[in-house]
Amino acid sequence: RKEVEQDPGPFNVPEGATVAFNCTYSNSASQSFFWYRQDCRKEPKLLMSVYSSGNEDGRFTAQLNRASQYISLLIRDSKLSDSATYLCVVINLDSWGKLQFGAGTQVVVTP
Amino acid sequence: SAVISQKPSRDICQRGTSLTIQCQVDSQVTMMFWYRQQPGQSLTLIATANQGSEATYESGFVIDKFPISRPNLTFSTLTVSNMSPEDSSIYLCSVRQGPEEKLFFGSGTQLSVL
To answer: For A8-57, what is each residue's pLDDT tens digit?
Structure first.
């Protein structure tokens, strides 16, 4: 089983709609969580950190569920420019702070 | 956030040749990381480049195939040696910064081996 798993999608979302997807992690020692956005053939770019209390950045909301060991990302009022692959990144304290990457969830926002 | 310049941005190479990828950071960092991302897959850490010491390679990656240099705290190179089509991938350098140790990436090198 992979340490970090994501639904690869694609999630086809009409413009203006809301989309949400999760990322599950298997290591209970996971300590830090991030969402990255990656456009086709480009480098991943940090979208937001994920905090225990949940956090929001404009149209994006990230949440952490430690009991069920997953994080989520919700995008409201989707824009065409939100089309990308969203990578989940987890840092585990028991592996010298190594980062574990999910394979990404593809989101396609359609007009 | 760190500004990381990586070059070349892409290259098409012949089997058996080598390619050196350069990564320049706008600030001094202790460690630089080299990742590979094969099509449709997650990022895989190749090695951690430490200034003044040999790089630390992850399982499945060896120095002879991926020699790394780290001559100072702002620069590193990764060489992909004796390339085969299986080496076709995006190669990314990265650094971690800030209290949360967030990871920032260079723009990547898209390598195609014929």
So the answer is: 999 999 999 999 999 999 988 888 899 999 998 899 999 999 988 889 99
- Which residues of chain B does A104 touch, with a Cβ-Cβ cutoff of 8 Å? 42
**Which residue among A4, A34, A102 places its CB closest to the CB of B102?**
A34
Sequence-distant (≥ 6) Cβ neighbours of residue B9 within 8 angstroms: B107, B108, B109, B110
| Residue B12: both structure tokens together | 């098409």
% pLDDT > 70, chain A: 96
A window 21-60, beta carbon within 8 A of B: 32, 34, 41-46, 49
Q: Do B103 and A45 touch (CB under 8 A)?
A: no
For residue B59, the 8-state DSSP code is: T
Closest to B23 (Cα-Cα) out of B3, B42, B38, B53: B3
